[in-house]
Design goal:
- By secondary structure, the chain is of the alpha/beta class.
- It has two domains: 10-32 and 146-296, Rossmann fold (3-Layer(aba) Sandwich); 54-135, Rossmann fold (3-Layer(aba) Sandwich).
- The chain is 39% helix and 18% strand.
- The chain has helices spanning 35-51, 65-77, 97-104, 114-118, 123-133, 149-162, 176-185, 203-215, 238-251, 260-272; strands at residues 10-16, 19-24, 55-60, 80-86, 108-112, 137-138, 167-172, 190-195, 222-225, 281-285.
- Strand 3 (55-60), helix 2 (65-77) and strand 4 form a beta-alpha-beta unit.
- The two termini are 31 Å apart.
Length: 301
């Protein structure tokens, strides 16, 4: 797997209410490790090498993009991968498309009851996992830690070098991608996040903590919008599904059902409400996650 940042395609989405929209097609950067998952893994993999750890241990839900990415990285790079999956009831059911692919990529799957899963980062619980699996490099759920930020910062610097924009916008799950973009922008542009999960106000403090850990700084040139979650993290409302279908018809671009679709829906709504200055340019980022359509009966079209 090439560790160099690949060339980005930038698509024009036209003008909406006096605001120009661009889309950075980070979902096209790698056929199996697209978008922010590849970027968040890059420096963590280098650290695992430095520590001499060939096993990657991580966590996720049944349709986790992160689990899928770690499993693919393991196969591509010859690493052993272990995934602890939320929901012990899944052990007795046929594997869904995400977990089937992860297992085919060589990931060892362990199913946890939800109480244990909530305690997964407590030292005594994590120690028990490592006794079971042997020495491993532990990646947090979603892949977000201080080492995830430099890869996302590289994307921000790529975009600054490529084109002119006023606002850089991204969907947020754990906040790691937005935090990394902030460090890459280094105050040069505004940044905006749209939370994919309900009740995500806590992300503001998490993002500040991440940038502080990674660079010793916090930033003020950003905002987080928490009203475009569409009912919750893994919920796909009829309104959002219709938006995804219409967007694909207009632009020939498929959005994922959990992250970038909510981002673009929110961006266009904010433009209609006059949130952005007329004549400005908003650069949104397609972070991938298309494999999640397996949990929603398949992609439209």
């Amino acid at each position: 797997m090439n560790s160099q940042a690949p060339e980005l395609i930038i698509s024009e989405l036209g003008e909406h209410h006096g605001v120009q929209f661009l889309l950075a097609r980070d979902e096209l950067t790698h056929p199996e490790l697209p978008g922010n998952k590849w970027r968040k893994l890059k420096h963590n993999l280098q650290e695992a090498d430095r520590l001499g750890l060939n096993t990657l241990l991580t966590f996720g839900g049944a349709y986790s993009n992160h689990l899928a990415a770690v499993a693919a990285a393991g196969r591509l790079l010859g690493r052993r991968t272990v995934g602890f999956v939320r929901g012990d009831e899944l052990a007795s059911r046929p594997l869904n498309s995400t977990l089937t692919r992860a297992r085919a990529d060589g990931m060892e799957l362990h199913f946890l009851d939800r109480e244990t899963y909530r305690r997964k980062h407590e030292p005594e619980v994590l120690t028990a996992f490592l006794r079971e699996t042997g020495p491993a490099y532990v990646l947090p759920e979603g892949g977000t830690n201080a080492l995830a930020l430099p890869g996302c910062a590289e994307l921000a610097r790529q975009l600054l070098a490529r084109t002119t924009f006023d606002v850089l916008a991204v969907a947020c799950g754990t906040g790691g991608t937005l935090a990394g973009l902030l460090t890459g922008l280094d105050g040069q542009r505004q940044a905006l996040g749209v939370a994919a999960l309900k009740g995500a106000d806590f992300l503001r403090a998490d993002i500040d903590q991440l940038t502080q850990q990674a660079t010793g700084r916090t930033y003020t040139n950003w905002e987080l919008h928490t009203d475009y979650h569409g009912g919750g993290y893994a919920r796909l409302s009829p309104e959002l599904r219709q938006f995804i279908g219409g967007f694909q018809q207009r632009h020939g671009i498929l959005l994922d059902p959990i992250y970038t679709s909510k981002l673009l829906f929110g961006m266009f709504d904010l433009a209609a409400k006059g949130h952005f200055q007329r004549g400005s340019t908003v650069m949104a980022i397609h972070t991938g996650g298309l494999q999640a359509w397996g949990g929603f009966g398949g992609a439209p079209g």
